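WARN no homologs supplied; continuing
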Amino acid sequence: MPEMDNSINIFALGGLGEVGKNTYCFESARSLILVDAGVRFPEANLPGVDYVIPDYSYLRDNRVKVKALFITHGHEDHIGGIPFLLRMIDVPVIYAPRLAAALIRHKLEDHRIKDKIEIKEVEDGDVIHIGADFTVTYFRVTHSIPDSFGLCIDTPQGRIIETGDFKIDLTPVGPNFDLATLARFGSEGVDLLMADSTNAEIEGYTPSETAVRSGLKEVFEKAPGRIIVSTFSSNINRIQQVVQEAVENKRKICILGRSMENVVSIAREYGIIKIPDQSIVEDADIKHYRPNEICILCTGSQGEEMAALSRIARGEHKHVRIMPLDTVVFSSNPIPGNGALVDRLVNSIVKQGADVKQNGLAFSLHSSGHPSKQELRLMLRLASPRYFMPVHGEYRMLKLHGEIGEEVGIPHDHIFICANGDILQLKNHKITRGGHIPEEDVYIDGNDIEGLSGQVMRDREEMKSDGIVSIILTLNRSNKIIASPIVYTRGFAAGVDTHVVRHAQIHAREALDKCLARRASPEDIKAALKLEVERYIFRKTSRNPVVIPLLMMEGNH
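OK structure emitted
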């Protein structure tokens, strides 16, 4: 960590080299503020993992400096990590837009975090002062969820703009992007722009959210039976369009999936989603209506195994099954890594006779909430920054966004493609590279804040691909052998199991004899057995199963 003196350190604990886990830190000698605290949802190669969160160790070690958490909007990849963060450190105050604040309160109740957490709601134009080091101004942007904002962070050393997630939608569902304020900040002088890079690979403009309405309208006009629409529960603008179309077509609306139910309930309470009470039905009452009178709105558009749509497709939902005249709408695009899961779910639904509609040339059923290249160019022109740090994206997205910055005139050496933990230092309106904060992913299995280490995940991956081998032996209190090592395998070397197991036991016994001859400790015995069996198995099979030695001592209970 470089010397702080009077500079401002800028770094990410999540959000760089990945889509999700957004957590950005701004640190002076006296204070540290955070922008967003998100999760990343696990890809198919992370068995048993519910969420991926940042390593909060640096924040824990500097917790006395943490003054506030600023939230840009209410998506999970920006607020989902808050319960885990609050179990690690005390955050004096959370500033959040109205809808995000409601979602955060509900999330804290869900996680049984009962301590009084101060959550202050903010609106467009609000200015918050954090001591003498940070002044944060909220300005409205357009995104796929209402109450989305960018932040202008003024410090004694210079001005930073963090865009949050945005797209420049000139016909949005909801309020307009506050382009005038962004332009004013740019004309006054912006030292560093940190901007959303998710769609940096796509030329042109991201289609307006209102363009989706015509695709939905065609589906509702032509569907002969029930309509089942699956989208992200946090895509509130999309949900509003679906329910509006359902009400206009006199279809009852059934909402399935815990997260969808929670979000819709909160958004209705705040008047953001408008559904007449008489238009909502419970899943148990669907059978009382004709199929062409029903619209089911559910989670599961990413093929998640436990989401509502997957359970319906497998026939595991108590009241809803796929029927031959159903029209199933995937109103989202697969997140990178989820394509195979979505394809498998689609095939299952089609086999049961339903008609599946996905976003494509024939139907516009989804519009991204993120900016394509022309919007990125416009953002860079309006903000006119001296230095540029692409954020929120995988490495190739950050790199392409950096190239867009060069296109509009930012010098190559003023563009910083960073990884999580890399530090930029802002001092006297100049940006330089600093050091690096150690960081790694933390894998959450359930609600345990301790999480799982990278080594645990590597072990799971090895068990999945190469299986597991256990070595069991029993000694008495005098380290005499009561039972020679016995080797058991699961998911390993099915074709040569007998030969490999027999010879693995011989090698384990030889290693044990050597250990006993030199009076090795129990821990040394286990280590020697593990190493010998691993080497033998790899030599014979070129595979690396997880090898677990179990040493039992006679008389121990």
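The chain has 15 helices and 24 strands.
OK
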